[in-house]
TrEMBL record:
One Pfam family in the UniProt entry: OMP_b-brl_2
Signal peptide as annotated in the record: 1-20
Ranges of residues in domain Outer membrane protein beta-barrel: 57-221
Protein name: Outer membrane beta-barrel protein
Keywords linked to the UniProt accession: Signal
Length: 248
């Protein structure tokens, strides 16, 4: 009788093990069993600037057209984080079981902000300049993955991306506008480095990857002009924090 129970338990646990192995291999549509796979992503983007000011950044802005100062001395310039979103398409190639190359072409809709504080409000009030952008991004990234534990993997990523602005922001003619009505602009094209981490969660029919990335522009994104908002600035570097949900 005891031998029968032992045999029954052995067969039961053996069947569970075989079933578990079969489910793990089949889940997520077998994405990891293919060298190439595709997916899509939804992203939340938080953008801010690293600001480098000119040595005389506090100096009031003098308008050559009216021969008058149009602002008082600046007391501070800062850049709060602002939110946006992005939609993208994933294509990946598996080099080994723990390393893959991927690209995630993405369309990004995001605002960037700079706050200007003046010592007095007599000539101009404190101002928040919003730079509204729509851009296409083309990253190339390496993804280093841990071994799969059940239906879970952790990973880190690193790489670079090229951003191309959509619209005519850099070509707007503001010559007829008053100095305080002009806008702060960014260059159309720039490159950034990217680093982040995430995890692969293997669900029954697809693989879900929550991910957090940081990106910083290699060079300044400031479009140089003579106006009350661009003149105090030496350089602007774009800093993004991106939370992604990737479906593969």
């Amino acid at each position: 009788m005891i031998c029968r129970y032992i045999l029954f338990l052995a067969l039961f646990f053996l069947s569970l093990t075989v079933s578990a192995q079969r489910v793990v291999q089949a889940w997520a549509g077998g994405a990891d069993q293919n060298n190439f796979s595709f997916g899509y992503t939804f992203q939340y983007v938080n953008s801010s600037y690293k600001i480098l000011k000119k040595p005389n950044w506090r100096t009031p802005y003098y308008d050559q057209g009216t021969n008058h100062y149009v602002t008082d001395s600046l007391s501070g310039i800062s850049s709060p984080g602002t939110g946006g979103f992005a939609l993208g398409f994933l294509a990946r190639y598996s080099v080994t079981d723990n390393l893959e190359i991927r690209t995630v072409p993405t369309l990004v809709f995001a605002d960037r902000a700079i706050n200007y504080q003046y010592q007095t409000q007599d000539l101009a009030p404190d101002k928040q300049m919003i730079v509204s952008t729509t851009q296409a991004e083309f990253p190339l990234e390496l993804k280093l993955k841990s071994n799969r534990i059940g239906n879970f993997r952790a990973y880190i990523i690193g790489g670079a991306k090229y951003a191309f602005g959509i619209g005519n922001q850099g070509k707007q003619n503001e010559a007829d506008l008053a100095p305080l009505e002009r806008k702060l602009k960014n260059v159309r094209n720039f490159s950034s480095y990217v680093a982040g981490f995430g995890c692969d969660i293997y669900l029954e029919y697809f693989k879900l990857s929550p991910e957090i990335k940081l990106s910083n522009s290699f060079s300044s994104v400031l479009y140089p002009e003579s106006n009350p908002y661009a003149s105090p600035l030496e350089k602007l570097y774009l800093h993004n924090i991106v939370f992604s949900l990737i479906f593969e």
